[in-house]
Amino acid sequence: MTKLKVKYGRDPNYKPQNPIFQLIAGGCSSMVDVMLMQPLDVITTRLQLQNDTIMGPDHYAGMSDAIKKIYRKEGMTAFWRGLVPVLVIDTPKRSIKFLVFDQSQQLFMFGAPWPSPPTYAFAGGLGGIVEALIQNPFEIIKITQQASRQKLPSIQVAKKIIENQGYGLHGLYRGMPTMVARNVVFNVIYFGSYWSVRDATPTCQRFEFLRNFTIACAASLLSCVASLPLDIVKTRIQGPQPVPGKVKYSGTLNTVLQICREEGWKALYKGLLPVTIRMVPGGAILLVGYEYIIKLLVSKYNK
Length: 303
Prior knowledge:
Blueprint (H helix, E strand, L loop, with lengths): L4 E2 L12 H31 L13 H12 L8 H21 L13 H31 L6 H12 L10 H25 L1 E2 L4 H31 L13 H12 L8 H30 L2
Antiparallel strand pairs: 1-2
Helix pairs in contact: 1-3, 1-9, 3-4, 4-5, 4-6, 6-7, 7-8, 7-9
InterPro entries: MCP_dom_sf, MCP_transmembrane, Mito_2-oxodicarb_carrier
Membrane topology: Multi-pass membrane protein
Pfam families: Mito_carr
């Protein structure tokens, strides 16, 4: 019978890994996640952008209806629309997020000999803030591409946004406060719950991957459900407005109130199914992939 070794917290002598290893591991796990999950990201964006009080031939009744209509009218490649800006930014920004998370844990030890749940939560939140600052302009471009029924090159979309709205909070950094809020909520729960539960549960080598992947899926689900309303609000603010030339969604609280008043509070959880289908395995791939790539790099190059 395999002996289980119970571990509560990391080794007191734990030190952050080589930053180069962290950047490589974060980038590689991010690329795998993006390539596999991009179709669900497109579907989620379409569902979140539409106003259910306005019906039409292009209205999506749900996830399956969106898949059918996108495939029939736009073809298979439409499911990977907006992939270029996602790959260009997600690889480095997630690498940096993991780097910030791991390196900043020493700042949030609060006198403890090793990281605790608050350590993981605060470090995750800081990583989320840094991630948002890098991500916002590319998120604007991606959402604009995914919302369009036409194929629009990333450079063309970026130029049009800059020409019409500029670089600031009305242009490429539109929705920045909401993006920061969403990322903080997501990453506090994502990193905080994963590492805390992982450190407090029994482990054995035979079932380590299954244990880690299961905990990562649960952490991804919790963070996804908690941050989805802010994600809906962010998408409405950053995406094309319902009436061209007229700004309807301009602030976090204002957008929440408008959505609840016009569509009901349930609209804040629109697209929950595709979001969870995309984020749960995707989040698990990121966390577990990051860990195993780090271990591989350490075993091979850190001798």
